Amino acid sequence: AHGGLGSAHGKAILMGEHSVVYGAPAIALPLVDLQTTASVREADHGSISSDLYTGPLEGAPARLQPVITALRATVDRVGLSFDSFEIVISSTIPLERGLGSSAAVAAAMVRAVSNAAGVALSPEETFELVQVAEHVAHGTSSGLDAHAVRSLSPLRFQAGIPTPVRVGAPMAFVIADSGTSGSTSAAVGGVRMLRKTRPALVEGIIESLAGLAESAIAALGAGDANALGATMLSGHEHLARLGVSAPALDALVAAAADGGAYGAKLTGSGLGGCVLALVDPDQADAVSDAMMAAGAAQTLRTTLPGGQKET
Ligand code: PMV
């Protein structure tokens, strides 16, 4: 083992956050403009360098424990020793915004370490090692992020199984960062509590969100931005009724709609994090400006490539 490199990208959830935890389908989009890379090099003592911390592995802060726990599992799997690497992580994925930074850091690290060992891990093994980090970071995890940060195509994800989704025409998105982080475990826990006290309400919302995910897949396949935007607005309303929105997120969704977006919704676990807006490319600047005026800390653009429309 001498050295190795690995990378992964960000993701946004188009539909199905929270309902996916209860068996409904979710759709994740790749954000290939947001990248995380990891490089590992043999060294006398283990160390890690990232935006959060640079120093010995044993002194690393709590926020790095997920990736360090996954590192232990990965070196065990590939037959290397734990305390013998310098790891350098660099990432352009905003942290704790539901854009997949934790899973991408873990995936990049798993790939870098397995490359350094010259061991080709199967996609399933890579997924399981990324999940080690996700479980430490979030308690439980549906596995959506661990698949999405490694897939270049949008994914439908249900009951642990990812399948690629067809995109009939290019789709342009503006993502607005509210500037505040939502806690995934707090949001998921809040839904679990509400489901205990108001089971009929929550089951009804989950069923509606499942239907919206299927509608979104159909709209993507048909390249129908109007239909997809409408499902997104409805998705946001349903997530708000689950208690995972926030005034700042509602304001960003309203601003996107007023600014000419086809639709918008919170993306990821909510309570903070980001809003995803579907736009006509000609309207992207106007929608971005409207969301900045409504309090966004920053906006990002992404386009999903798509094939021919179905006739
Ligand atoms: O906030 P994120 O992007 O990590 O997404 C969490 C998605 C949930 O459905 C809320 C939880 C899960 O494990 O799928």
Description:
- The mean pLDDT is 95.
- Helix content is 41%, strand content 24%.
- With 311 residues, it is α+β, with helices and mostly antiparallel strands.
- Helix 1 runs parallel beside helix 2 (101-117) and helix 6 packs antiparallel against helix 7.
- It has 2 domains: 3-161, 2-Layer Sandwich (Ribosomal Protein S5, domain 2); 167-304, GHMP kinase, C-terminal domain (Alpha-Beta Plaits), CATH 3.30.70.
- The protein has 9 helices and 11 strands.
- The relative contact order is 0.17.
- The N and C termini lie far apart (53 Å).
- (3R)-3-hydroxy-3-methyl-5-(phosphonooxy)pentanoic acid binds next to helix 4 and helix 5.
Task: Give the key terms.
311 residues; alpha+beta; Ribosomal Protein S5, domain 2; Alpha-Beta Plaits; 2 domains; 7-stranded mixed beta sheet; 4-stranded antiparallel beta sheet; 9 helices; 41% helix; binds (3R)-3-hydroxy-3-methyl-5-(phosphonooxy)pentanoic acid
What is the class of the largest domain in the CATH system?
Alpha Beta
| Level-2 CATH architecture of the largest domain | 2-Layer Sandwich
If you compute it from the alpha carbons, what radius of gyration comes out, rounded to the nearest whole angstrom? 19 Å
User: Biggest sheet: strands, sense, closure?
Assistant: 7 strands, mixed
Average pLDDT level = 95
Unreliable parts: none
Global structural class: alpha+beta
